[in-house]
Write a structure and sequence with these properties.
Elements lengths: L1 H9 L8 H10 L19 E5 L9 H8 L4 E4 L11 H12 L2 H9 L1 E4 L3 H4 L11 H11 L16 E5 L6 E5 L10 E2 L9 E2 L11 H11 L5 E5 L18 H14 L4 E5 L6 E5 L7 E5 L24 E8 L6 E8 L4 E8 L10
Parallel strand pairs: 1-2, 2-3, 5-8, 8-9, 9-11
Antiparallel strand pairs: 1-12, 4-5, 6-7, 10-11, 12-13, 13-14
Helix pairs in contact: 2-4, 3-5, 4-7
Length: about 375
């Protein structure tokens, strides 16, 4: 009965709140405020994808308005969508409430479908993984806020990993939403006075990023037919080790991903990531796959100095921004264009590739 009552409370929408109730919800988290978030239409091809991460819920987020005006078919929230950092679920709800009440967020939700994953701060603890004690409760709030359908398979397993395919045969885009937090074993801290970095490479072969159930699910997903596959990973996949959180901290897991793409012969894989508070495009060419691109968009409100990355293709962006991917399905060899837009609507860089470059049959 308690869980039913909680569910009914969290299904309340903005229009049902009086001004006094709205103020209370924003302050205390008693009741979850949402906008009418919708998922992409599976029948329609995806052409314009926008994305971002690292938005502090108590600051203005004008980049979301700019992203909405770009008219994406779908916007990908890549984690740290709020800075929850708590084991108090009322506090977590209150912070989601403040995001959902922002006019710029509502505008984006009105104009675009939305898909989301979490990172550490909206999961509930900085740099957290499997050890976070409120992962189940946090997941429920995450799914309610992002308006996950009641019958979604995402509700039927631990973690928030999920997938969605949009478009007809020949124009299919598969969105693979990874959970980098629920199953991840702790990162290995550097030794004060010896290591200059926060963390050191975890050389333990049993170190986990995704967990076995998620790996099995991912293998099944990569075997499904699709022309483009957007893998949403909250932490950077391609970037080299830099002492902070990213896939390179657990190199056996990163190699497992590369080998899985190779073994399943999954064409069209592109990674998108957040977390680092700057934007960049990276590319790595493993021996056993085609080139792997990673578009990092991490600056809804946050900014920081970039870390070393020998795979970086273009100058990084430090100001607030959103990332963009445009798929041109109409040419004989469809193309993918990567861009990052700043707060004055300028594309800081643009790089296009042909879809044929992301196949195991292409001449690389």
């Amino acid at each position: 009965m308690k869980s039913l009552k909680m569910l009914l409370v969290m299904l309340v929408v903005v229009s049902q709140y009086s001004p006094a109730q709205m103020t209370e919800a924003l302050r205390t988290g008693k009741g979850l405020v949402t906008t009418t978030i919708r998922q992409p239409d599976p029948a329609k091809p995806i052409q314009r994808i926008a994305m971002g991460s690292c938005g502090y819920q108590d600051l203005p987020q004008p980049i979301l308005r700019i992203a909405a005006d770009w008219n994406p078919d779908v916007f990908l929230f890549l984690g740290d969508n709020i800075y929850g950092d708590t084991e108090n679920m009322d506090t977590l709800r209150a912070k989601y409430n403040r995001l959902g009440s922002k006019p710029e967020f509502k505008r984006l939700a009105e104009r675009s479908a939305i898909l989301a994953v979490w990172d550490d701060h909206d999961y509930g603890v900085n740099d957290g993984g499997e050890e976070y004690p409120k992962k189940v409760e946090s997941k429920e709030i995450f799914l309610q806020f992002w308006n996950e359908p009641a019958a979604s398979v995402r509700r039927q397993h631990p973690g928030i990993y999920h997938s969605s395919v949009c478009g007809p045969v020949g124009k299919r885009t598969q969105f693979i939403m990874l959970d980098n937090r629920t199953f991840r074993t702790p990162v290995v801290a550097g030794i004060p006075g010896k290591d200059i970095n926060d963390y050191v490479v975890d050389t333990n072969r049993s170190a986990r990023m995704l967990g076995e159930d998620q790996w099995k699910w991912l293998e099944d997903e990569l075997k499904k037919p699709a022309e483009v596959r957007i893998i949403m990973t909250s932490t950077q996949f391609v970037s080299e080790f830099n002492g902070y959180e990213l896939w390179a901290l657990k190199p056996f897991e990163k190699q497992r991903m590369i080998d899985l793409i190779s073994r399943t012969k999954a064409n069209g894989v592109v990674f998108v990531s957040g977390d680092v508070h700057f934007g960049e495009l990276s590319m790595q060419k493993p021996d056993n796959t085609y080139p792997l691109y990673d578009l990092t968009a991490s600056g809804i409100t946050s900014t920081d100095f970039p870390q070393p990355n020998r795979y970086r293709l273009a100058k990084e962006i430090h100001e607030n921004h959103f990332g963009a991917i445009t798929i041109n399905w109409e040419s004989a060899d469809p193309s993918i264009t990567f861009e990052i837009y700043n707060v004055v609507k300028d594309a800081v860089f643009s790089k296009s590739i042909n879809l044929s470059e992301l196949t195991f049959t292409s001449k690389r």
